[in-house]
Structure formats: structure tokens, C-alpha cells
Amino acid sequence: MVKLSPEEYIETLKEPRRLIYADGSLIKDVVEHPLTAGVVRSMARSYEMEQDPAFKGLLTARSFISGREVSRGIAIFRSIEDLCKRVDMGLTYAREFGTCYYSCPGCDTLNALAATTWEMDKELGTDYHSRLKTFIRELEERDARCSGAVTDAKGDRSLRPPEQPDMYLRVVEERSDGIVIRGCKVSQSGAWANHYHIVVPNVALREGEEKFALACAVPAGGERIKYVCQYNFYSAYRMHADREEVPNWPYGFRETCIIIFDDVFVPWDHVFLYGEVGYVGKLITRFANIHRMVCGGSCKAGFLDILIGAMALMADQLGTMRARHIRNFLARAIVMRNVLYACAKMAALEGHEEPEGSGFYGPDLIYANAAKLLAADYFFEVVKFACDVAGGLVVTAPSLKDLKNPDVGEHLRRYLRARAPAEDRVKLAKLIQLWLMHAPATWHGAGPPEYEMVFLRRAIDLEPLKELAKRLMG
Ligand SMILES: Cc1cc2nc3c(=O)[nH]c(=O)nc-3n(C[C@H](O)[C@H](O)[C@H](O)COP(=O)(O)OP(=O)(O)OC[C@H]3O[C@@H](n4cnc5c(N)ncnc54)[C@H](O)[C@@H]3O)c2cc1C
């Protein structure tokens, strides 16, 4: 079994070649291009951290298949402790990168598949679970990583997949040795920087929708898969601004892409569900609960740690740290951060073996969905506080180049300084600016609030609570 060094990991991105498009052209060098370099650096750094004894047992885990120590990014949860470590892994990487750990949805889809394929083999006599275990052993052997390809294009949300087949990834051909798939997956976090895409359906399916009921592993890269990078104002900034101007230069922002599967062949041994519409809802629910635990209370707690740190630095710079309302903002932000982390940890601690007898563990649904539901609101709240603490400069700050311009630099350095030099203030304002865009990303990542409410409305058990009230009414 190999353990890839960061450099060896980067080499793996060359073969098979990734066809990645950004801003209208094909990217020649993913290691150097401003829109992909940050993703490559964070993935390479995660390989480095996994081999650091300080993170042993947190970023690595014992494989239930080979018994060997492997990346926790490809490890299956076999205990409450594994769920807790999954939460702390997300927090650790978020604080390190200030952006995503790009194998996060891959880890969570693998875990949802472990439980669901076990259940299907037990109930249907299929061999999906043994295929999955063989695949995971392959991942371990190659020290490979996975992305999680869930979100379909979905087109007109009021129509079903058969009414608009292009809008949902589907099987277009069955062969004796495998299947051919066609479609796209949108908003895919750092997908091309992984070695496999774990494809799962995005919506619960019904009879007659079998060709959309597909879970499989697709190798990244090659001629039949194309990636189109997100391009928003921060992307333009990374493309055109000087390095020192761009906050969080090393790792960047949450980079996603669209994956286009242009009639891609998948061998049967990489197919883990095909046609069993009755198990799709369970698979999606298991994935969503794990991913909401992590996306709500683990990485978001880490991101808020960075944002609150930036707010506190700004209050120091502006001499407002003793002001009651500023300290209120900071205290409330820390409360919100801790509530999110507490929900994620409780989701893990209240987790359970699921399905019973399988040895696989999943988080508590209510705490997991609470973490993500609250994160959507709390992130906008804390961004609001940060905007207040930073003042208008959070939007109106000039370029750092202007501070060096012989005509105006001296004036700007004099007038924009506070308890810190003007340059530090401008840099900090731009770092806070970056976090403004994390709020909508937090809103939708792992599903917008209504998706959590659908799960929570279904899951809440009111009868015991009614009994409680009745008893006290005598
Ligand atoms: C930064 C970021 C990273 C991401 N990373 C990944 C990733 O790695 N892998 C992945 O697969 N996905 C990823 N996603 C996608 C994310 O999971 C989706 O954005 C999210 O689930 C919402 O789906 P959508 O974007 O299609 O919006 P929609 O689902 O269309 O939601 C938009 C609005 O429409 C409503 N709506 C949707 N459908 C219906 C309906 N049938 N009836 C009534 N109302 C409806 C929703 O409730 C919401 O209010 C990422 C997203 C972001 C922002």
C-alpha cells in the first residue's frame, strides 16, 4: 500500500489528464493556474498533514477492510468515536485551509454507500457491498481520494427526471461488461483534484425512474469527462489581482466545478446501485445526515473561528475592542460558532449503528440537520457583525498598489492607518470581504434550509412530548 507524498499526489493529477475549463479556455497547468492552484495546494497539504504524527488517529483511521492505517477521508465509520473524529477532521482542515477539504463529500458518500449496499445485499441478495469493499481496498492501495457527485442540474424543479432526462445523470446504455452514463453534476467541490467521483442520485426516485437510480465510482479525468470551473468575482480577483491583494492566496475560496459526463463507461464492479429505486431515498438520507453534521457544525465552526479572529483583529486595529456592542458581536459570534460545533458533536455522540447489525454508524438526524439549518442563518449573522466591526472599508478599501503609488501612497498610508499601519488594515478588510461570499455558499452547501426542514418535519416525534405535557396537566 502506498502513502503518497504531496509531490507524488500532484503527479497523479497528470494521468489521466483532466480537461478543465475556466473563464472560456482549457487550463494547461492545474498546479499554476490561479483558479486551480489553491485546490491542488490544499489537497497536497492534506496528504502532508495525514503523515504528520500530530494528526495520527484524527486525520487517519484504521480500515475495517484491511486493518491498516488509512486516510480518514476514505475510512468507513465503525463507531461513535469515528463519527466524532469525522467532525474534528472537518474542523481541523477548515482552520488550516480557510476553505474546503475537497474529499469531504467523497468521504460522506462512501459511508452512506457502505450502509446502503450492506442493506441491499442482505435484503435483495445483490453483491454491491462486496464490490464496494473491493473498491475501497483499491482506494487504500493507491492512497486515492474521492469527490462526492450528488447535485444534478435538475432544470425545472417541478418536473420529474423522466420529463427532462438531460437534467439528471442517467444510464444511457447497458453492456455485458458495464454501463454508459450521461449527464452532469453541478457545484462540485474540487472534483477534478480527486481520483474518483462517487456518483449518487440527488432526489428520491420512483418506479419507472430506474435509469436515474445509479450509484457508482467514476475515475477522474480522461477524454469523456470535462470540468468547468466556477467563475465569480473572487475568481476574477484571483485571475487578475496581484498575489498580495488576494486574501487567503494559498488555498483560495471554495472552488467548485460542473462535471460533464459525456457517455462515460463504468464497469459493473464500480456500480454499487443500479435500478433499485426503493433504496435511493435511504442512500440520500444517510449521505445528507452525515454531510449536514460536517458541513453545518464542523468546517463552519472552523471558518467562523477565522472570521471571528479577523473581526477581533479589526477591533484592535480600530481601537473599538472595549466597546460594549463590539464585544457583544464577538461574544454572540462565538456562541453561534459553539452551538454549531455542539450540534455536530451531539449528532456524532447520539449517533447509532445503522442499519442494525451492520457495524456501520450514522449520526443523529435531528442534531445533524440542526447543525446545517442553524449554520445557514448564523453565517449570515456573523458576516453582518463582521461588516459592522470592519466599517465601510470592508467594501471601499483601495488597492494595496495604491498605498505604494508615489502620487497618493503617502496620503493613504497616513489617513488609513489606525492602531495598525494602513496596509494591515486594508489587507484585513479584504480578508473579511472574502468571507462575505462564504455565507451564500454555506446556505446551499449540503442543502438549503428547506431541505433540512423536510427531514426535520418528518423525523420529529411529538407523542412523548405530548405525554409529558399531559402528565403535568394531571
Ligand atoms: C460551495 C458549495 C459547494 C458544494 N459542493 C458540492 C459537492 O461537492 N457535491 C455536490 O454534489 N453538491 C455540492 N454542492 C451543491 C449543493 O448541495 C446544492 O447547491 C444544494 O443542494 C442546493 O441545490 P441547488 O443548488 O440545485 O438549488 P435548488 O435545489 O434548486 O434550491 C433552490 C431553491 O429551490 C427550492 N426547490 C428546489 N427544488 C424544489 C422543488 N422540487 N419544489 C419546490 N422548491 C424547490 C429549494 O428549496 C430552494 O429554496 C455545493 C454547493 C455549494 C454552494
> Which strand order spans the largest sheet, edge to edge or round the barrel?
2-1-10-11-7-6
- Gyration radius (Cα, Å) is 23 Å
As for the CATH topology of the largest domain, it is Butyryl-CoA Dehydrogenase, subunit A, domain 2
The small-molecule ligands in this entry are: flavin-adenine dinucleotide
User: Biggest β-sheet: count, sense, barrel?
Assistant: 6 strands, mixed
Structural class: alpha+beta
CATH homologous superfamily (4th level) name of the largest domain: Butyryl-CoA Dehydrogenase, subunit A, domain 2
Count, helices: 17
Beta-strand portion reads 5-15%
The CATH architecture of the largest domain can be named as: Beta Barrel
Give the fraction of residues assigned to helices. Answer: 40-55%
Which regions are unreliable across 5 or more consecutive residues at pLDDT < 50?
Answer: none
- Mean of pLDDT: 96
Which class of the largest domain in CATH terms?
A: Mainly Beta
Shape: globular
In whole angstroms, how far apart are the ends?
Answer: 65 Å
Number of strands: 14
Secondary-structure map with pairings?
Blueprint: H1 6-12, E1 19-22, E2 25-26, H2 37-50, E3 60-62, E4 69-71, H3 80-97, H4 104-124, H5 128-142, E5 146-149, E6 170-174, E7 178-189, E8 196-199, E9 214-219, E10 225-229, H6 233-240, E11 256-267, E12 271-274, H7 277-297, H8 299-318, H9 324-349, E13 352-353, E14 361-362, H10 365-390, H11 393-396, H12 400-404, H13 409-415, H14 422-436, H15 438-444, H16 449-459, H17 463-472
Parallel strand pairs: 1-10, 5-8
Antiparallel strand pairs: 1-2, 3-4, 6-7, 7-11, 8-9, 9-12, 10-11, 13-14
Helix pairs in contact: 1-2, 3-7, 3-8, 3-9, 4-5, 4-7, 7-9, 7-10, 8-9, 8-10, 8-14, 9-10, 10-14, 10-15, 10-16
This protein binds flavin-adenine dinucleotide.
